[in-house]
Each structure stands twice: as structure tokens, then as C-alpha cells.
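pinging the channel bc i need a second pair of eyes. not urgent but kinda urgent?? the chain im working w is below, pasted from the shared doc
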Amino acid sequence: MAFTIDLTGKVVLITGVSSGIGFGTAREFARAGACVAGCSRKDQDDESVSSFLQVVKECGSNALYIQADVTHKEDLEKMVQKVIDTFGRLDIVVSNAGMNVFEGAEGCTEERWAYNLDLNLASHWRLAKLCKPYLQKSGEGVLLLMTSNHAFCSIPGCFPYNVTKTAITGLVRSLTIEWGPEIRTVGVAPGFIDTAGNDTWFNSFPDAMAERQRTINLHPVKRIGTVEEVGALCVYLASPMACFISGTTILMDGGRSALMQDSY
């Protein structure tokens, strides 16, 4: 018998679907048969939004897009209500939206610190609270919080981003303890994934290609990850096959954290 994951009849809400991990995750959930609702700050007519809607529909699934800024509570409230009004239920949430706020501990301003806390930590908590009653009603509610390998180890200059990503692991534990067994909460911590955001990081160096290759060489698998791989992990974690996984954060970093810094 083939090993398949069928999420037909399930409704998933994914934040940050206009690009990167959010986009790849939306595609993988659509391939598994789930109805996919997604948000980003992009206007409905933006090309990236059209791509999201198209890729979900090409997989034979229903798609819904809501323009929303996850740092605005009112936007989150309207978004969750729109999902319920459209599909009548909510089974899975992938709280993914965020961005690299790399300032350094000394150079970080109060404004950037506050923005980082709001976007990369508080928004996950706010969205989780709004979705809680619907996930409970589902009977098999799953809440996936997107963190980062920076939750486990970091590099110079990545403060305050790494602080909030570490804090998400605590949020995962708390929600698991307080909201189980009706809701399973799991953290997903990708390492270097081939996205526009990582291209921006590589392009900040004098020789972007050389820095990219140096980074690849630090991975025992000798490559960086793909958004589809992150999405596939999310689909598995949201499925009944992973029903004993809760309260933990799954690190997927191609083995990079297994290496001593001077090993390669």
C-alpha cells in the first residue's frame, strides 16, 4: 500500500502565502487535498497572489486569499471570520508570516525591537487565540508555528530575530500544555531554505555566489532546503500520521547544526 496523506475535507489557514515557505506550504497542502486559505500584505491583484490562487486550484483544491497584516489584530479577526464564513470550519493553521529583523544587539533600536516582537512572536499568539475555538471544534485541530534554526543556534548580527524565534519554542510548549488534547501544537524550524529572503542575505556579501557556496558547504547534505520540503513536513505534521507529535519543535536544517564550526 502506498504511503499517502489525504487531507480532503480539511481547511488550512496559512499566513504569508505570497512567497517563500508560505507559498510552498500552500502548494503541498493543496496537493494533499485540503482547502487552502492564505494571507499576505499584498493586494489581491498582485501577481504573487494570482500565483498562489492558481497553484492551489491547479492541484484541484479550493483557494481563498485575504489581504492582511498579521501585526494588526483587526486584520487577523477579519481574516479568521472570512475563512469560517467561506468554508464553515478550520482544521489546521500554519502561522508562518514573518521576516528577518537582523540588527545586532547594540545597533537595534527600540522601534525595530518592538516591530520584531510584534511580527515574529506576538502575531503567532494572537492568531492562535483567534483560531482556538474553531480548531477545538474540529476535533483534530493542528497549530503549526513557524520558527527557525536560529531558535537553537545563531550567528553574529541576527539579534533580535533570533530572540523571538527562540521564544516561539516556549509558545509551542505552553499552547500544547494548555490547549491539548483538542489541539496539537508543533513548531517547525527550517534552516537555510532557497527563498528570496535568503537571496537577500547572500546578496549582502561582496560575493553572493561565494557566500552561498560557503553556506552550502556547511551542510552535510551539501545543499540548502526547498520550500516544498518545508511544506511537506507541515503536511505530515498536520496529518493523523503525526498525531503523537505535540509540544516540540522540529529542526530541519540539513544537518548544519550537527557540525562544529571549523569542521569543513
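so The first helix runs from residue 20 to 31. and The two ends are 42 Å apart (CA to CA). — does that match what u expected or am i reading it wrong
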